[in-house]
Amino acid sequence: MLNNKNILIGITGGIAAYKVCELIRMYKRAGANVRVVCTENALNFVTKLTLQNLSQNEVGVDEFQVENYKPEHISYADEADIMIIVPATANTIGKIANGICDNLLTSVACAFRKPMVICPAMNCGMWNNHFVQENISKLRDSGIHIIEPEEGFLACGYNGKGRLCDLQKIFDKTEELLSQQQILSGKKVVITAGGTIEPIDTVRYISNYSSGKMGIALADTAYNMGAEVILITTVDAEKPYGVLKVKSAVDMQQAVENEYDDADCIIMAAAVADYRAKNQADYKIKKSDDTDCISIELVKNPDILKSLCQKKAKVSTLSASTVDTVKSPVIVGFCAESENLLANAKEKISKKGCDFLIANDISRKDIGFSSDYNEVSILTRGGDVKHIEKASKTDIARQIFEAIYG
C-alpha cells in the first residue's frame, strides 16, 4: 500500500521525538519515500544525522533554504502524498490551528492540502488544557486527522493521558488514508450541508437545528479520497476545496443544478426547509399592540432531491434512445426522522427515486444535530439496507463512500 508513496514527517520538540526513528524504519520497510521536516527544538531530542540516515533524504529545518528558486515549504507540500506530525507539541498544535507560520514545519503545514495526521504527545495537564482542546477541535473541524495520546507513565513523572500513541496506529492510519485516496480519484462530488435560511423580513427567518457537520465530514472525506469536491453550504467553511455559500432552498437548488452536468455524485446532506414565507417583507415587521397574533403564509419550497432524481431519469431515458451517452450522477439523499425510521426511509426512497438514502434518527441526543457522532442506515433503490453503528461523522462519511463505490 505504501510502496513509492511520498510521506512527509514533521517532528516537533517533545521527548517522544526519539520514537519517530522506528516509525521512519516502518515506512521505509513498506517501500515509502520518507522526507523529514523538524523544528529546531526537535533536534534537541534526535539528531539530524540520524534522521537523514534513516530516511535517506536531507532533513529540512531552515525555512529560508531555497533550491532551484522554489520555496522549500511549498516544495515539501507539493511533493508529499500525506503529512504526519509526530510528536506534535501543544505549541505547534496551537500555531497550526491559528495559521501561525514561524518555522519551516508550520509553514509547510499551512500550505499542505492533502491528508494530514497530527499525533499529539505532552504532559497530561497540557493535554487537558482548555485552549489546547479548543485548538484540537479546530484542527478536526478543518479535516485534519488527530490520533489522540494514550494513558500511561509520562516522561515528566505523571501518570495520565499524554503519551504518544502506539506507532502501529500511525502506520495503519497512513495506509488507510492513502488507500482511501484512490476510491474517488478523478470523480467530482457535490455535497450540500447545513440548514437552509428562509427569510420572513429583513431580520427574521425560518431555519432548523442542522449544524452542517455531517455534510462537511462527507466533503472532507471525499477530498481526502481524491475527489474534486464542491461543498454547497449555509454555514461558513474554510476548506482547500470548492465552497459555495448559499442561504435559501431556492439558492441551494440553483447552485446544485449549476454543478449537475459534470458531477459524478451528488449528496443532499443539507436540511432543506420544507416551507418558506410566501411574501418576504423588505423591512422589519413591527410588533403591534393591537393583537397578540401574527399570520405568515407559507408556501412549499422546491424539492431539490426529487427534482434531481427526475432530471436524472429524464436524461437517462433520452440517452438510452440516442447513440450518445450522458454522464448520470449517483444521487444520494438524507432522511432525518424522529420515529419509524426505516419505514419512513423506505417510503422516501421510493417516492424520490434516489440511488441511495441515508437515514438517521434525530430523536437521540447523542447523535445527529450538532453532534460529532452519528448512526445511520444506508438504503439502496434496490431495497438493500446496511446499518452503521454509532461512530464519528468522519468515519460514517468514509463508510458511506465505501458503500457507494466499494
Structure description:
By secondary structure, the chain is α/β, with parallel strands linked by helices. It has 2 domains: 6-180, Flavin prenyltransferase-like (Rossmann fold, 3-Layer(aba) Sandwich), CATH 3.40.50.1950; 188-405, CoaB-like (Rossmann fold), CATH 3.40.50. Helix content is 34%, strand content 24%. It has 13 helices and 20 strands. The strands form 5 sheets. Strands 13-12-9-14-17-18-19-20 form an 8-stranded mixed β-sheet, with helices on both faces. Strands 3-2-1-4-5-6 form a 6-stranded parallel β-sheet, with helices on both faces. The protein has a two-stranded antiparallel sheet with strand order 7-8. Helix 1 runs parallel beside helix 2 and helix 4 crosses helix 7. The longest helix has 17 residues, at 304-320. It is globular, with a radius of gyration of 24 Å. The model has no long low-confidence stretch (mean pLDDT 91).
Short description:
With 406 residues, the protein is of the alpha/beta class. The chain has helices at residues 20-29, 48-55, 72-79, 90-97, 104-111, 124-127, 130-141, 167-180, 213-224, 249-260, 304-320, 341-352, 393-405, and strands at 6-11, 33-38, 59-60, 82-88, 116-120, 145-146, 150-153, 159-163, 188-193, 198-199, 205-206, 228-233, 242-245, 265-268, 275-277, 298-300, 330-337, 356-361, 373-380, 385-392.
Main attributes?
406 residues; Rossmann fold; 34% helix; alpha/beta; 13 helices; 24% strand; 20 strands; 2 domains; 8-stranded mixed β-sheet; 6-stranded parallel β-sheet
Number of helices: 13
Rg on CA atoms, Å: 24 Å
> What is the number of domains?
2
CATH class of the largest domain, anyone? Alpha Beta
Number of strands: 20
Distance between the termini: 17 Å
Mean pLDDT across residues: 91
The share of residues in extended strands comes to 15-25%
Largest sheet strand order: 13-12-9-14-17-18-19-20
Supply the CATH superfamily name of the largest domain: CoaB-like
Gross CATH architecture of the largest domain: 3-Layer(aba) Sandwich
Helix content: 25-40%
Mass-distribution shape? globular
